[in-house]
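Figure caption, in words: inputs first, then the predicted bound structure.
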Amino acid sequence: MMFKWKVSLGILLLFIDVLTYSFLKAKDKPTVKQIKSSKHGKILTNDKVSISNSKSKKPKRKLIILSIDGFPANYLDHPEILDQIPNLKNLFAKSQGGRIATINPSVTYASHTSMITGQDPGFHGIEGNTPIDPYDQEDGAWLWYYDDIKVETLLDIAKQENAKTANVYWPVTVGAPIDWNIPQFWREKTNSDLKILRSLSTPGLHRAMEKKIKQPVLETTKDDAKIRTGIEIFLKYKPDISLIYSTDLDTYHHAKGPFSDQAIEKLKLTDTYVGELIHKTNLYKREDLALIVVSDHGFTTAKSICRPNKLLLEMNYLQPQEKTWKYYIKSTGGLAFLVENEKYSESKQNTSTFLSAENNPDRKNLLFSLSSKIKEECKGVRMIYSGDEFEYYRKKSFPLSLAILLSDESTHISTSWTGDFYTDVQNPIFTHGFPAYRSDMDTIGFFYSNIGMKESLSKNPKSKSKEKLQNLRFESVKDVFPFSCMWMNWNCKPNLKKED
Ligand SMILES: [Zn+2]
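Bound structure (zinc ion present):
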């Protein structure tokens, strides 16, 4: 039997006496017009979210946000998969949400930061998983540090609201203002990581949880360690907001592919830990606790590789021996951007302003050569460097871009400059990071609370609020933010993070 994923919107109206939900036009930023029609309904035409509500009646509510990394929305269309994950299937049926859009770039760190900020990567500052580092001088570093997020997150707002927070392994949380924090971090993927992680976590917490769970949270341990640690922290310390992040499904999708038996086996295991979470937190029997189950991106299978940095090497813009570069193409998989070293370095000093290629013969020449070569050789890849679509991606995804590359078919855009410019691959590449308008990049988002919606609506027939709330749908990873704010009865406004 097919699920009815799209639950009526009114459902959300439940609990809040006076709530207005509006998307403000950012006065100081240009509005980005919709450029792609969307299967997720209306694409919002700006990036700022404001939720205000009455503070007069603030029930003490709790929220758990569980992320299952790399859960493709397409699984929702397969009853034979859902039948194997009964805990999630049951939860989904009780929740509102379903298929949701990811952001650009559709990669883990960018997406998880969009969840807790409600913003696109171009605004929140986490524009991928890793820094721009053509010669790996940072030894495989990822964007682990909370300090790199430019805007306020749910965690900052929680502090302002005197709410307590907990985290198990959510991306970009090293140094985050979290009361009980075990951030995602690794270096060697050996046991030395244990010492580092204990040092980066809230003092004593990592060791105490390892003792309780009988295994440590580490990059090399599995979802049972992460989700069970999340449950234990919730039960022991009773935080108001808990972030829990699980990684196994994504790992197996990368290794074996979406819909593979091995990935489904992993998902079945994760489902049992979700069952534990629901059971041990008594989720279905209490009215003060809501659960968001969300994921960050879908998956696709690439069958060929395009290596645009090879042309940059030939044009002498990349000099690997000297470890210098003038231009470089940073790729997230099926979306890539051309960056100029000078601008990138300036941005680190916060002095950067975008300059177009006009009146710069060097850039003009590069853009022309690169776009011609890609058009000729890379199947299904297009390069844009002017016009509305380019501005859309530049502002929302990579503000420093001189050009954006988009893969519409099954070509993976590599950052490598060795090998052929374009080649088919023998073994398929299971990946993501492709443009978010592709349905295979869609993922899942569900909000569950035990409070009856219809009842709440009848008690609160404020037509204006009701009308505005009709706009609040779980349609994007960014919607974790307004859903969380609404549930917590918080006054969430877009703000830049304060400088220390
Ligand atoms: Zn991911």
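The first strand starts at residue 19 and ends at 22.
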